[in-house]
Design goal:
The complex is a heterotrimer. Chain A is an alpha/beta fold. Chain A has 9 helices and 10 strands. By secondary structure, chain B is mainly α. Chain B is 77% helix and 0% strand. The model of chain B has no long low-confidence stretch (mean pLDDT 91). In chain C, helix 2 packs antiparallel against helix 3 and helix 6 packs antiparallel against helix 7. Chain C starts with a helix and ends with a helix. The chains are: A alpha/beta, B mainly alpha, C mainly alpha. Chains in contact: A-B, B-C.
Chain lengths: 262, 221, 216
Amino acid sequence: MIRPDAATPVSAEMAETSIGDMIHLADVHKSFGSLHVLRGVSLDVAAGEVVVLIGASGSGKSTLLRCVNGLEAIDRGEIIVDGLRVGDPKALRQVRTRVGMVFQQFNLFPHMTVLRNVAMAPMLVLGQPRDEAEARSAELLVRVGLKEKVAAYPSQLSGGQQQRVAIARALAMGPKAMLFDEVTSALDPELVGEVLRVMRGLAEDGMTMIVVTHEMAFAGDVADRVVFMDEGAFVEEGSPQQMFSDPRDVRTKQFLRRILEK
Amino acid sequence: MLFDWSSVTRYLDLIEQGLFLTIQISVVAFSGAFALGLVGALARRSRLLPLRLIAATYVEVLRNTPCMLQIFVVYFALPSFGLKFDNVVAGEIALALNVGAYMTEVFRAGIQSISSGQIEAAASLGLSGTQIFRHVVFPQAIQNIYPPLINMVTITILGSSLLTAIAVPELLGSALVIQSRTFRTIEIFAVVTGIYFVLTFGTSTLMNLLGRRLFPARARL
Amino acid sequence: MDWQAVWDSRSLLIEGVFLTLELAAVAICLGSVVGLAAALARTSRLAVVNWAAQGYIGLFRGTPLLMQLFFIYFGLPYLGVNVDRAVAAIVALTLYSGAYIAEIVRAGIESVAKGQRDAAQSLGLSFPQLMRYVVIPQAGLVTLPPLVGFYISVVKDTSLAYVIGYSELLRNAQSIIDRTARPIEVYLVVGLLYFAICFPLSRMVARLEKRVMATR
């Protein structure tokens, strides 16, 4: 039930969480100076579940994601990923091998080829030998539809292609869960589809995902659960059908009306 | 005006020696400056305040005082502290310290210009701080700083001429010796002007070409 | 540490500061004029003028200032000019500064995006109007930090005139050391004096740079 290879002893409360919880957030608070960005957020994501976070900018969605993989340190509360407590500095690198993140600005390494971008972390962090890492990376690149681009440099790719490389790069570490932070917001409209297609494929293959996005059609298709956030707290959550056709809270209604009008 | 070029050709070996010494001084000093610059830039970005202060002080003091003064300090003042160097070494040390302060700022700007997003992405993949520096930050920093780096090399070569003031027989020093013996100012200085020009122009051209090889345009940031 | 010796020589030190600033000021003023002229010459469509300017700039930027100083000091007599150290120092520093300033100005002018020049010319502005209303206002701000930065280095470079025996701060410092045999104290004070002049100017340059960045 509890990971036998956990790098840190997990607290007794862990025994109470249900089996199969991949990501567990309990009463998470985060402030930037005087700005209280996350106000007591609690969330449980089961293995294989796809959770979509929606909300206005500034509602704390991105911050939440960044706390899950430790890019931001929380002030209060607890985050457990695959049995490891996020916040313990020794466990941090291990946490990051279990959960991958894809960013809005792609953040590919411009001085490396596409193949090396994908293969670098498995070699350096997981200790994979070069041929193995490169072979698996090549497979991943085929999977995201970029077989012919292995020797190219990021500057030679379109935005959509770069983002797909970024997804492959995160997948190369063999994560149990993936975090997507508005990964299509910086793309030209005609390139959004190819990225969403890859993400849909991942969801169908059973990947645990937390996705921050404005793409409501995608959420409707792929999400198991949609959560609406406002001013650092969860307002409402439910199945996509529930949320989109019959939201209960007035703030949810207002937000959806604005978003779906576009 | 008829020029007497034999006055120069007679002392060709002196010019040669001077040239080699200039090149040696430049190479040694710039290598030192490069290392100092890297260390200094990292120190300036360190989390430890004392380190940051020491680095900042080093940079500001050496950039806001004349290089000539710094050479004199290393050669004439340090012996009182038990640090006695011969004039060539003293000159190399002073020059390295001076250019090192400028290199610190060059490196610092180069490192800073690498977007934090990439560092976050690397951290998210599980890379350690050292790994991130070595594989993501440093290769890009080198590429970023390459143009100002070439400029610093030129500055070092030109700066080596200041060592004449402490009687180092580098190229300018040799020129002065020949001038004092032959009094054919125009000829000897014209030749030395040409040599310096070829040195600086040649070095920067070569480095530019090298840069195009090392940093292919497709991998340009 | 014997500070008394330094204090006793304070008049020499103060004189040195004034001599340094004086030489720097003259070189900066004359050099800026020369530099501006050379920069304009570089924009000329007459090949001769353009190439002459390029040659001058390349020569004085690719060779050491100290060498230029000696060349002029020993070489001017051949041109019939009765050389004294001051003239040699001024001429050398002026020509040296002119070359660097020309490059700084040229970079500033070029930094004004070509698109803007195209747009202005399409609107029918003449060349002088283009310069006055579009290029110079923008180029002016961009050139200020590197220009002031270079002026600071001119102040430091006056110390090279020491080697031809011209009196400025460093030379006075050396004569005090010869008299008192206290290099550490003297160099410390002299270093502080140079620092006191240059550091505030450097901070100003840093502030100017921030302002320039903000507008881009």
